[in-house]
Design brief:
The chain is an all-alpha fold. The chain is built from two helices and no strands.
Length: 77
């Protein structure tokens, strides 16, 4: 992307992976805790980011198409 940015959908996908890893972490035996924040408040934020991306809301809203007026050329004189 321009300026070295990351596509918002890619960011939301990474949030989804973190969300899934955090949810599954307690059920996988002998697994160390995640190296990222995994409290309930963070999980709710990740779920909200995922939802916005899925529904294309907020920063995930696609750009509106450019509309142009198209008309027929005038008849020759």
């Amino acid at each position: 992307m321009e300026g070295g940015g990351v596509d918002p959908h890619a960011t939301a996908a990474m949030h989804a992976v973190r969300f899934a890893a955090t949810i599954l972490w307690p059920t996988v035996p002998n697994t160390p805790p995640p190296t990222f924040r995994h409290d309930s408040e963070r999980l709710l934020q990740l779920a909200a980011n995922w939802r916005e991306a899925a529904l294309e809301l907020g920063e995930f809203t696609p750009p509106h198409p450019t509309l142009r007026l198209v008309s027929e050329p005038p008849p020759p004189s």
